[in-house]
Hints:
Keywords (chain B): Calcium, Magnesium, Metal-binding, Repeat
GO molecular function, one term (chain B): magnesium ion binding
Oligomer: heterodimer
Organism (chain B): Denticeps clupeoides
Structural class of chain B: mainly alpha
Strand content of chain A: under 5%
Domain EF-hand (chain B): 98-133, 143-178
CATH class of the largest domain in chain B: Mainly Alpha
Number of strands of chain B: 0
Structural class of chain A: mainly alpha
Protein name (chain B): EF-hand domain-containing protein
Strand content of chain B: under 5%
Amino acid sequence: MMMMELRETCSDGPDRGYHGYQQSLRSRRGPSRMSRDGPPHLDLASSEDEDPPSRTPQKLAMPMGIKKAVRQLQHMQVPVSSKRTRHSRALKHFYAEAKETLAILIPWRKAIHKIGGHFGGGVQSYFVFLRFLVVLNFLSFLLIAGFVLIPSVVLSSPNNTPSIPNGTNITGKELCMKYDHSPEVLPVFYTFFLDLLSGTGFMEYTYLFYGYYSNTVAESKGVSYNVPLAYLLTASFYFLFCLVCIILRMGNVVRVLVTTGSGGERGYSARVFTDWDYGLQGDRATGLKQNTIRYRLQVDLEEDRIRLRAASLSPGQTVGLYALRALLNLVVIALIIAAFFGIAEATSFSQREAVKWTGVVGLLLEFLPSIVITASNFVVPFLCDQIARLEKLSPSTTVIVALLRAVFLRLVSLGVLLFTLWSQITCSGKADDTDCKICRYNSAQYQCWESRVGQEMYKLTLFDFLTTMVLLVLVEFPRRLLVDHCSCKLTRWVGRQEFLVPPNVLALVYGQTVVWTGALFCPLLPLINTIKFFIIFHCKKATLFQNCRPAIKSFRSTSSNFFFCLVLLFGWILSTVVLIYSMAEIHPSFGCGPFRFSPTMWSVIQASIDNLTKTTQDFFNIIGSLAFCVPLFLLSCVVLSYVAALASVYGKSVAILREQIKQDGRDKQFLVKQIKDLTRILGVPKHEEDQYDPGASWGDHHASASPPQYLPNVHSFPSASHY
Amino acid sequence: MGGAASQLPKEMVSEYQELTFLTKQEILLAHKRFSELQDRDSLSSRVPMEKILTMPELKSNPFRRRICHVFSTSEPNDGSLTFEDFLDLLSAFSDSATLEIKSHYAFRIFDFDDDGTLDAGDLEKLVNCLTGDTDETRLNPEEMRQLIKNILEESDIDKDGTVNLSEFQHVISRSPDFVSSFKIVL
């Protein structure tokens, strides 16, 4: 209370002087001196900086009887609720209602809220991320369907003979144009399933894969639609759209991170005093909120303990710990490189041998790369987790390190697969290799290489989905049944499943990267992925509630949201590299697809620009030329450096303000100490000292005794008003 | 089971509008809900705490008993509320109440032993209310001790081992979302 008084006084300015100090000091006595059974205390007190007569009784923290008495003493002319306050309140009400109605459109809102209450923010962030991916894939599918699929279906010509554009030289390339996709004459009955799973046979020459789309400019009823151009531009826009969505989401997450001060700045006292939401109704909502608060407190307390322990190590122990960590990182890198070799070998083996075998053996060989990738994605992270236990990092750091390692493994193993495919398709880039001389790609093995790449991605997606389902059904449910019904020591030691977020998130990111990589070659892959993620959402939710126990240790969800988006961005970058390389460098197949007879996919754009008017051509030429690009680049450098300077200035002001807050706290402590010392020195009688004592109880002080006594002492605080 | 719900006289409604932060509709709704809880329809009659706690807005709130005690003006302080106490309660928890009012009443609600400061016992009971007061949901004693130590370190400026009203208000003033969460609307 004293501090409040002094602070208010000091902010009044030097001109109020002694009298102002006295008056405001007297008027500050109210709220903490409210006597329950004594006479009503009529000091119109609050910590606001107003003169006493104009205080409205509304703002008194007292019972209604006292407020009525106060009101009778005042002559109130001011209207209570002016028009402006009524308008602003109505506006606030309207915004709240609008937000409520819009929130209904978001799918699975209640389910995710329930998950957050039972299992904490970390698990909830996984499901929020999954929901984001489902929506992203669905919108992408709508984009592709609208611009590529539906025009192709509607405007397709009855005869699918490829139209050879004028001016292309195809002499000697008849071999390349051969594309044999029709199914076998006498298919065995199980061929249907094999083809369904691996995308070959009857499924190859459908809208599912690149090879089916025609390269004609489809014309129907006077509307002409350039299918190849649409295909290319849709693929590019699809990638840009995904990038924009990811960056918007990252921006939201970063904003939350920055405003909450990355969680650590908001101290325990602020959370304990302000976290409860008094508007919650019902036992269920209250229970959820209590669970959330408890999880967060426990996680933060644990992190503090670990930090204290780490800070208390001796130098020798610290050096030992770091050396151990370096060694373990080397082990992890060795494991990952071993996995890469395995994948490369499996891919080249599969590509060579799979065509020679049919039936189930052929299917296994087709799926060999997927099997090896999935196996390494299980084994290596498991080993890394065991290694991470020896490293003794804090929980959130452990999670981030595990996530980064597993991301590296997953994405680069996909990259190894793609690299192996590339080296087989283009004979490792050697244009004058015997196989690749005529058609500039390996036409003996790959009559339609884009469809083959699309099939690989399709197989990867499917296998990933099957693995998830099989694990759910064959591992998690039986584990719960075993633990619940059989109480031997082994089951009690193993216990129920705990829902681990990082491996699950990585599975999602991996699946999404595969879809992005394959979207150019298999346009319906986003639709398949939407359905796959939708089913996975419901299955994971079911297994969460049925089989998993709440995590004893959970981790911070705000920073993990940011990392999920970051690893998704890595995946996007990988697939963009693949896209750009395929579009610009590799020769499209002669036998199939909308880009046959073009030297590269990108040349379609050049050809269509040539068809535009001269001014448009000049416009594009100017944009593409150096005279435009170099000044644009310089301008963007200037803008970038300005924004960077602005950001650093803001960062510095934030740091200065934080320092100032800490300094204020220290000043207050100093002043309080000063006051205590001075009151002791000046020998203020004991019952007056109680007035400064924060520990005085509510009811044992009478109003009348207070003001006059300490005035002489106030006079001898010369330094107080100078702060 | 109240009798015929009599209307509040207009002058009283406007008087309450001036003395609280509630709008006219909120006051009339409060009167309606309060009469449903009462047996007789008289403004000075008290509703016992058990009946107040049957309201859905308060039924699951972990601080419900403290709220009734804080706003009750009865002599034995048994938590029973008159209609005016009820209006005081709603006013403090309303949309337009100021930060000072809310933080003042929040402090009194958290002061479980009513001694004017938040000491370690009050803080422990407060944390138990926040996490749930059953054996599975309480923090273990080690964590509780660490938490209370951290709280006092952060907010006890004069180092007397307790948090007084101004220290409490200092912490609250740096939390922008306190005003929106300290809200009960009928």
